């Protein structure tokens, strides 16, 4: 089922999330719905707050980016209750966009690599280090779990310059090809 994506200005996007319990109702169905929603919206990542749920869950499938970023080794996966345990000192700047902030793309500086502890769909615990573009996607989605959007990470002057566009999204004047709320 395709879920509506909550847009910038919705309070759920600013709320820190809570851990998912093993008994969370229909978790596997939710994960599949999140993947379907992400694919339908042409995204490479989607966090639970973006579909209205204040839980620590996000999905990523970076395989569409492999042509541009051959360093992407892992593609489709779900991250349940992720925690960033380490970030590199080295940073990289790259332009980001977000399904919850349609039509806006800004340069964001993030650590080049990140180590994350999380559970997969089978509730197996992993601690993995991700590099390059996949690390960026992980950090972007992780930010959603902490109540942040990528525009929080742009320079104050750039934030000021895009404030009008952000207000249009808040007022419901976003142009999206996917279902929104």
Defining traits:
Peptide Deformylase; alpha+beta; five-stranded antiparallel β-sheet; 181 residues; two-stranded antiparallel sheet
Number of extended strands: 7
- CATH architectural designation: Alpha-Beta Complex
How much strand content do the residues show?
25-35%
Mean pLDDT: 94
Summarize the structure in words.
24% of the residues lie in helices and 28% in strands. The chain has 181 residues and is α+β, with helices and mostly antiparallel strands. The protein has a single domain, classed as Peptide deformylase (Peptide Deformylase), CATH 3.90.45. The strands form two sheets. The chain has a five-stranded antiparallel sheet, with helices on both faces. It has a two-stranded antiparallel sheet with strand order 4-5.
Q: How would you summarize the topology of this molecule?
A:
Layout: H1 27-40, E1 45-47, E2 57-60, E3 77-87, E4 91-98, E5 101-111, E6 113-119, E7 125-131, H2 132-145, H3 156-170
Antiparallel strand pairs: 1-2, 2-3, 3-6, 4-5, 6-7
Gist?
The chain is α+β, with helices and mostly antiparallel strands and 181 residues long.
């Amino acid at each position: 089922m395709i879920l509506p994506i909550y847009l910038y200005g919705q309070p759920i996007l600013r709320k820190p999330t809570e851990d998912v319990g093993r008994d969370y109702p229909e978790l596997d169905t939710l994960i599949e719905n999140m993947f379907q929603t992400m694919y339908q919206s042409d995204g490479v990542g989607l966090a639970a707050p973006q579909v209205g749920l204040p839980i620590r869950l996000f999905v990523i499938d970076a395989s569409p980016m492999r042509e541009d970023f051959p360093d992407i080794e892992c593609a489709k996966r779900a991250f349940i209750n992720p925690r960033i345990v380490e970030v590199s000192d080295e940073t990289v700047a790259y332009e980001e966009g977000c399904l919850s902030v349609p039509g806006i793309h800004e340069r964001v500086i993030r650590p080049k690599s990140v180590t994350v502890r999380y559970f997969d769909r089978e509730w197996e615990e992993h601690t993995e280090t991700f590099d390059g573009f996949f690390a960026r996607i992980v950090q972007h989605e992780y930010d959603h779990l902490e109540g942040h959007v990528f525009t929080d990470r742009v320079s104050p002057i750039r934030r000021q310059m895009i404030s009008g566009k952000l207000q249009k999204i808040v007022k419901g004047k976003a142009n999206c090809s996917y279902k929104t709320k």
